[in-house]
Write the structure tokens for this entry.
Amino acid sequence: MSTVPAIRAYLGGSFNPVHQGHIQMAMHVYNALADIATAQQRVLEVSLLPNARSPFKEDTIDPAHRLAMLKLAIENTPLQISELELWQTPPVYSIDSVRTLHERYPNDSLIFIMGMDSARSLDKWKNGLELTDYVHLWIFNRNDDISFSAITHNKNHANQPLSKQDIAEVSFQLPSALQGQITNTLTNLMQPLNQLLQSRTGLKNPAKGRIYIDPRPVAAISSTRVRAQLTINNTLPNTPLHPYNLPDSLAKWLNPTVYQYIIAHQLYSAA
């Protein structure tokens, strides 16, 4: 059994339903880390982490349906699913999950993936500023995030890191307590947090997790928009939802097998 610390990254969310934006984010993280993991001879796991029910969302459907759709969405990918939160009694908070992961994998590199819209509001989450006591953060922007895109517009699609000037411009979007933890180097996310006390890396607080801001934009899709479109298509005359009648808007957002599951189980429809 290898004693080399694994690399474990988690994308949390309600996945209500899972859409192509979720898969795009998780696959980009996997692809960006794969060469590093191979070079370091480390196990790499990138997992989707569905929650039991977000404390901010009251309309989340049955966990069994969301899990079934996730399994369909990750077929033929290297992605995994963590059921850590799924069957717990809500509300379940991210801070409790990252503490559990840190306790479970104290010697591994742990990464929590999120969008900049969520990162901006971490000071509003329950103990949100303490997430980096347990994990590193990997932050994406969405194509419709104008304030972020204005800074990253000149970055290509080869995972070109942000410059020090870029970091200075984008860091103000994060809560002030986190701004000193940004790094532009992916390998800085590879160190387990229990080793950071022995390191000196130039960060203001080397005992905290790093924050990597990914310059690559991801699709501006939300589960709320998907649910709304499903309802609209179900109520239009002569346009019944059907597994083989995938509307153009939904075709860009949903895996076809996920769409078929939604239809078969009559989820999210006005009926």
